[in-house]
Amino acid sequence: MRLKDITGFLFEFLFNKSFDIRKKKIVPIDHFVQINRLNYSLEDASLRHLFSKYDFGLVLDIGANQGQYYHQIRNEIGYKGWIVSLEPNPADFEILKGKAGNDPKFIAINQACGSSAGTVTLHVMADSKLSSLYKANDNFKDRFFSDLSDTRKITVEMTTVEGILKSMGIKWKGDIFLKTDTQGHDLEVLKGLGSYAETIRAIQCEQSVIPIYDGVNDFTSLNNYLNLQNFHLFSSTPVLRDKKDQSIMEINAFYIRKQG
Known about the structure:
The chain is α/β, with parallel strands linked by helices and 260 residues long. Helix content is 33%, strand content 30%.
């Protein structure tokens, strides 16, 4: 975390106020706005630590949406190696490709990812970041105050991590960093590592504490599975809270493969 960020957080936590540049004055801020800012900085700090400690030659970005993670890894973290991003929604995929421009070490794939190849149904939400292979439940409706009437279904192709790595035809040196954010399908992504499971050094995985989709695996299931695969929890930060009582609904968790 940069010094100016630390100074800003200390000021806000001590005085519950922030400097509004537009109004050129110090104004009160919501406590949970502070918490969310700190969560993002802690996530950023985890990424910076991992990318400084390990020699990642390939980043797999599963559930890329419109390229937000590509931008974070390439431009904020400063990673220079290969990035392969998967996004099943065709509309988001076109934006993803445009953000990468002529990056010679970037590959964008218009597919979903899971434990087996085939075709699946994607539930496309008005906010495309929330699109999922699973149907939204009442927790989703309560959190986002949505009747889901604008949700539409499309059929998309699905592949596996093993299938991606076998078909890309690229060579990389170093470990693989896997980021998976698929709105509930992350355990299936992990089950599709196949023969490449041992090449994954670290994982960033979105996990549900209070599921907002029907039939998804929760934090306990994902954590137990990763422990059995010789990964241990490195850090975690909340990414979604209940608007009523601010209880945690989803987290971003970082795992590192145990050595020795």
